């Protein structure tokens, strides 16, 4: 059998791996282990727990306080992959610059990014938020209402994005989307983008912001936007939400159309 | 015209200029002498020459054809000239009047038909007229550049028209006449007088100078191109006319030879590059990964060269003579596998451990016999063995130190931090990069380094948080020390345990336990650097500094491991020597019993011949040491290759092919592809070499093994780098680190020769194996040689020379010499620094001066402009000439040449415009460069 000394020689390797990838281990612990543990204990889902916390710790009608309590819960208590405060600043800035009238959000999750976008919308702007999961959508709905946004500003659509996008034009009378925020399944980034192109919802100057393109990462999506000459694009480099060491990025695409 | 061809033609022009310059004088003379020679021969030659010139660049082929046509035309015309001269006197007056008419007709492009009978006569006159025209044109040229250009262009146009017409209808006579008319304006060298030739020559010179100075002219590019083309055409046309006869031929020949020579040189360079082993591979890697990775491969190649020489020495002077001329296998006990091991001597496992037949072969020390001279050559084997051992080490020292000195010269100027940002600005690009991805990385790294440098500057001014970084650095070093101590202890523990195993008998233990030492050493050598790398991120050094720290740490680790290993070996040597004493005693007993036995039986019988395999023998510790080193090298090589295959290749394959079906981006995220670890690889190489130096005395096969290893790893690593590594994220130049490697190599060389020398000097060799058996010490072989192979006086001299009374003063002298050299080099360095300062001062002064001069020039220019404007206003009032003159007089010093030109308006001589301007240009250019 392998002797103990040889096994000990692997100790530096183990240490190296642990130190180098410590953020990933921490993330794994917080996002997976703690979640399973709490699920077992409380019998509630993660989103429901978050909602409970937000409900008890923030002032209703004040989006900022809701966002703050969300951030606190996600960084200190448990982990939900919202867009987070740092990348959220980029999102805010872009919304301020563009001041889009029609915004499409893919993947509302529990409403954090929805509130962020709705907060920054100009007067008369309208946000269409698509969420696939029923329970998540219910919580998102509650949180949006809690933040004080009504149906006129935020339209929550509970359906998978690949079913909704082709029907946007007919059902919701959308001619053109000024701003698209993608934060749902990373594998759906590319097909959804292509679907948006096919439906002609993107006009010249439409901005598409895709979160988490580096981690967990959407390589096919990035490859596609590199190849297709339809977009002017750049990647905002940042770290993963509520974590310091994992690098992540948001892809900003500006639709140029066919020249 | 594409730019390439333009450049090429430009170069051509340069070459011609160079060679024309040399032959100028010769041309003149020849021109005078051969002027009235038979024309047709001349012309043929000229045609040839022109054809050669034309063939220089492909794009001139068309022109060559045109030239050929022109030649035909000219021939015809000259014939007519000769006829015409006969009739000149007869038809003088009438021709004059006609010629005036033709002159008018010339201006109309559609020429009227003329009678053929009168044509010849007119032609003669026309040539004369043409000459005059050329003269006047020349005057204009020399007077004013602009007008010259214009006239030249006009000529060009006309000639072009002529060419068109000639290509359309060559045979029709009307057209040929027309052509003659217009061609009259061109210069016909064979019909020119010496003075005119002079003028023509001057014009040609002017053109040449224009071409030369064209690059510095403040004209728009289009104009430059046009003038370049025109002047080249001009040159091509008239230059040929000036040279004649032999000179022409020689010239053409010379140009041709020049071309061929240059081509040959280029080919030879290519050939030379192709001859350097792996040069292309390394260049390719360099272009992909930057120079730091390439420096590793260059180092590897250098190492390979050294090992080739070491291998040549040991192989040629030790192994081959012993194998060919020494006693064959099985003749004496040391050359035979013992009876107990015979059964398993050919097993692969045993051979793989370098036991069995491998142990009893030329590969190891024990096989060599202690005969003084072997074979018919009387080859002194023990002496050769000793000298080769010493020679390899001496040669390695020499090479390493020489290379270090050379490198030190290159980097002697040293880094100074005074111009941090300008260094970054102007020297940070790695021009050897040829891969877009690496270029991107380099670009990113440069920008980040700029950011960091700016931040650093700011922080250094703020000077806060320095305590944190200091604390972190101390902490990192502490962690590294802990790690080093741990690994040292682990190795010590393992070695001690292995000794226990050895005492128990190795057969009772598993393969793992037997190879524990090597395994643990390799694994620690592999994994600890990774840990150091992780720890070093704490320190936040510049990558180059970080690399050096990393190198230093790994160096310490390897050194610690190696020395632990050696200490363990020393223990084992002592054990073996104790064993040897017992065996020695036993052997005498055994021999005595043997002989006693025989003696008792039979007196006269010859001593019993015992098969050498049965003779008891001592544990040859030298062979044991050699075997240990060989095993270490083998296991080290294996681990390197296996890490390469698993850590790089397998990882790359997994990342590449699992990326399609994985929940995160494998390429950009967690495992990613590996980077090439320069420091680890370099150190591996260096320590490998250290082991070779250490063990080569006891195992002559080591250099051969190392050559093999380096050869394989060259190909394997080249492939692995290109196939599974990605360029480093922070690409940096490795220019400074080369000497660092060398210094480490030197240290390792010293540290590895230390134990070898220690064993050679202090431990007596085994009594029954190796070339020095039977001697008290290994170096006794030299004494022995001196006594028996050299004349008596030599040994006497040697003994005197080795007298401490002589040696000590000599050493003292050497120390003094070293001290002197060091102090002189120090003073030189200081002088260098002083000179540098001086240069800087001078530069600054020049800068100031220049600024002043430039400001003054600017002011003058503006003044002149004002005056010019005023004068323009005056011109409208019709009194321009006087004012203009005044304005020009008032122009500043920089404009002086031009005023001179203007003054030379009235000069009848051909005072060329360009030389003067050129002179100013030349005078100005260096002053510009200086700053």
Automatic annotation (TrEMBL), chain A:
Entry annotated with the keyword Ribosomal protein: no
Superkingdom of the organism of origin: Eukaryota
InterPro entries: SAM-dependent_MTases_sf (IPR029063), SAM_O-MeTrfase (IPR002935)
Pfam families named among the record's database cross-references: Methyltransf_3
Alphabetically ordered keywords of this record: Catecholamine metabolism, Endoplasmic reticulum, Hearing, Methyltransferase, Neurotransmitter degradation, S-adenosyl-L-methionine, Transferase
GO terms for biological process, alphabetical: auditory behavior; catecholamine catabolic process; detection of mechanical stimulus involved in sensory perception; dopamine metabolic process; endocytosis; hair cell differentiation; inner ear receptor cell stereocilium organization; methylation
Recorded catalytic activity of this chain's protein: a catechol + S-adenosyl-L-methionine = a guaiacol + S-adenosyl-L-homocysteine + H(+)
Enzyme Commission designation: 2.1.1.6
A cellular component annotation (GO) from this entry: basolateral plasma membrane
Subcellular location: Endoplasmic reticulum
MF annotations from Gene Ontology: catechol O-methyltransferase activity
Family statement: Belongs to the class I-like SAM-binding methyltransferase superfamily. Cation-dependent O-methyltransferase family.
The protein's name: catechol O-methyltransferase
Upper taxonomic lineage: Eukaryota, Metazoa, Chordata, Craniata, Vertebrata
């Amino acid at each position: 059998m392998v002797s103990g000394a040889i096994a000990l020689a692997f100790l530096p390797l183990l240490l190296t791996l642990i130190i180098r990838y410590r953020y990933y281990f921490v993330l794994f612990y917080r996002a997976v282990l703690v979640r399973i543990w709490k699920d077992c204990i409380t019998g509630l889902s993660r989103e429901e727990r978050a909602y409970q916390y937000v409900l008890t710790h923030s002032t209703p009608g004040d989006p900022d306080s809701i966002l703050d309590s969300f951030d606190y819960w996600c960084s200190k208590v448990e982990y939900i992959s919202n867009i987070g405060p740092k990348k959220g600043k980029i999102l805010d800035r872009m919304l301020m610059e563009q001041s889009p009238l029609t915004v499409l959000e893919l993947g509302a999750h529990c409403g954090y990014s929805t509130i962020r976008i709705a907060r920054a919308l100009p007067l008369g702007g309208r946000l269409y938020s698509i969420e696939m999961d029923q329970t998540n959508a219910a919580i998102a709905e509650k949180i949006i209402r809690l933040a004080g946004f009504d149906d006129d500003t935020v339209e929550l659509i509970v359906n998978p994005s690949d079913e909704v996008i082709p029907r946007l034009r007919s059902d919701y009378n959308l001619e053109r989307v000024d701003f698209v925020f993608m934060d749902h399944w990373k594998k759906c980034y590319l097909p959804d983008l292509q679907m948006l192109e096919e439906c002609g919802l993107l006009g010249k100057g439409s901005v598409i912001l895709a979160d988490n393109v580096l981690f967990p990462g959407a390589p096919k999506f990035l490859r596609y936007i590199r190849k297709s000459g339809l977009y002017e694009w750049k990647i905002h480099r940042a770290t993963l939400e509520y974590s310091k060491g994992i690098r992540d990025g948001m892809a900003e695409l500006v639709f140029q159309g066919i020249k | 015209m594409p730019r390439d061809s333009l450049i090429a033609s430009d170069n051509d022009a340069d070459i011609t200029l160079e060679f024309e310059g040399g032959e100028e004088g010769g041309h003149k003379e020849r021109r005078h002498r051969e002027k009235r020679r038979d024309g047709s021969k001349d012309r043929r030659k000229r045609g040839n020459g022109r054809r050669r010139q034309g063939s220089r660049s492909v794009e001139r082929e068309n022109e060559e054809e045109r030239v050929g046509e022109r030649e035909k035309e000219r021939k015809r015309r000259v014939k007519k000239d000769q006829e015409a001269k006969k009739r000149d006197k007869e038809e003088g007056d009438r021709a004059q009047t006609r010629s005036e008419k033709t002159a008018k007709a010339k201006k109309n492009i559609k020429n009227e038909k003329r009678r053929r009978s009168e044509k010849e006569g007119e032609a003669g006159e026309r040539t004369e007229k043409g000459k005059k025209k050329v003269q006047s044109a020349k005057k204009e040229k020399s007077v004013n550049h602009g007008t010259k250009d214009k006239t030249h262009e006009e000529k060009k146009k006309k000639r072009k028209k002529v060419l068109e017409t000639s290509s359309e209808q060559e045979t029709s006579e009307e057209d040929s006449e027309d052509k003659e008319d217009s061609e009259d304006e061109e210069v016909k060298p064979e019909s020119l007088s010496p003075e005119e030739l002079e003028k023509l020559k001057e014009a040609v010179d002017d053109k040449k100078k224009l071409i030369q100075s064209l690059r510095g002219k403040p004209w728009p590019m289009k104009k430059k191109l046009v003038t370049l083309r025109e002047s080249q055409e001009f040159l091509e046309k008239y230059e040929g006319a000036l040279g004649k006869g032999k000179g022409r031929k020689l010239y053409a020949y010379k140009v041709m030879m020049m071309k061929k020579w240059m081509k040959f040189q280029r080919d030879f360079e290519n050939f030379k590059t192709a001859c350097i082993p792996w040069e292309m591979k390394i260049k390719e890697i360099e272009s992909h990964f930057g120079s730091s990775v390439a420096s590793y491969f260059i180092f590897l190649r250098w190492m390979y060269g050294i090992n080739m020489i070491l291998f040549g020495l040991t192989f040629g002077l030790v192994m081959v003579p012993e194998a060919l001329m020494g006693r064959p296998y099985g003749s004496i006990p040391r050359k035979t596998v013992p009876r107990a091991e015979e059964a398993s001597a050919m097993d692969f496992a045993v051979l793989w451990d370098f036991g069995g037949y491998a142990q009893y072969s030329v590969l190891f020390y024990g096989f060599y016999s202690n005969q003084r001279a072997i074979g018919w050559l009387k080859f002194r084997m023990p002496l050769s063995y000793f000298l080769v051992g010493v020679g390899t080490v001496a040669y390695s020292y020499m090479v390493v130190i020489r290379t270090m000195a050379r490198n030190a010269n290159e980097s002697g100027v040293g880094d100074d931090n005074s111009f941090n940002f300008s260094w970054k600005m102007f020297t940070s690009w790695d021009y050897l990069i040829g891969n877009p991805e690496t270029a991107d990385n380099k670009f990113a790294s440069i920008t980040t380094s700029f950011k960091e440098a700016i931040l650093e500057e700011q922080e250094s001014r703020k000077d806060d948080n320095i305590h944190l970084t200091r604390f972190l650095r101390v902490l990192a070093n502490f962690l590294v020390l802990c790690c080093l101590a741990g690994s040292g202890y682990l190795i010590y523990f393992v070695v001690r345990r292995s000794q226990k195993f050895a005492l128990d008998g190795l057969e009772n233990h598993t393969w793992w336990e037997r190879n524990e030492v090597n395994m643990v050493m390799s694994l620690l050598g592999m994994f600890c650097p990774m840990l150091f790398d992780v720890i070093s991120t704490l320190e936040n050094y510049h990558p180059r500094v970080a690399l050096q720290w990393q190198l230093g740490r790994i160096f310490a680790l390897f050194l610690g491991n190696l020395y632990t290993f050696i200490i363990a070996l020393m223990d084992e040597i002592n054990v073996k020597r104790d064993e040897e004493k017992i065996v020695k005693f036993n052997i005498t007993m055994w021999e005595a019993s043997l002989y006693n036995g025989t003696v008792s039986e039979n007196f006269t019988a010859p001593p019993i011949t015992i098969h050498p395999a049965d003779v008891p023998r001592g544990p040859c510790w030298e062979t044991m040491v050699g075997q240990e080193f060989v095993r270490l090298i083998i296991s080290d090589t294996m681990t390197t290759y296996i890490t390469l295959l698993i850590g790089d290749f397998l990882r790359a394959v997994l990342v590449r092919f699992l990326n399609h079906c994985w929940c995160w981006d494998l390429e950009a995220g967690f495992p990613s592809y590996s980077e090439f670890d320069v420091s680890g690889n370099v150190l591996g190489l260096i320590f490998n070499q250290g082991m070779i130096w250490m063990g080569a005395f006891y195992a002559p096969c080591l250099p051969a093994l190392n050559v093999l290893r380096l050869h394989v790893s060259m190909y394997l690593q080249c492939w692995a780098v290109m196939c599974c590594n990605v360029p480093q994220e922070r690409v940096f130049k490795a220019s400074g680190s080369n000497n660092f490697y060398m210094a480490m190599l030197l240290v390792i060389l010293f540290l590895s020769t230390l134990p070898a020398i220690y064993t050679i000097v202090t431990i007596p060799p085994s009594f029954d194996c190796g070339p020095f058996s039977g001697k008290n010490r290994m170096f006794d072989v030299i004494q022995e040689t001196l006594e028996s192979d050299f004349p008596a006086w030599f040994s006497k001299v040697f003994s005197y020379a080795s007298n401490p009374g002589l040696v000590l003063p000599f050493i003292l002298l050497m120390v003094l010499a070293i001290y002197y050299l060091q102090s002189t080099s120090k003073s030189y360095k200081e002088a260098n620094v002083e000179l540098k300062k001086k240069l800087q001062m001078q530069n600054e002064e020049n800068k100031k001066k220049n600024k002043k001069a430039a400001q003054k020039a600017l002011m003058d220019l503006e003044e002149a402009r004002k005056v010019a404007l005023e004068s323009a206003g005056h011109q409208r009032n019709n009194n321009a000439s006087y004012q203009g003159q005044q304005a020009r007089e008032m122009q500043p010093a920089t404009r002086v040449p031009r005023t001179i030109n203007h003054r030379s308006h009235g000069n009848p001589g051909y005072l060329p415009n360009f030389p003067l301007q050129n002179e100013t240009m030349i005078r100005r250019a260096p002053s510009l460069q200086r700053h």
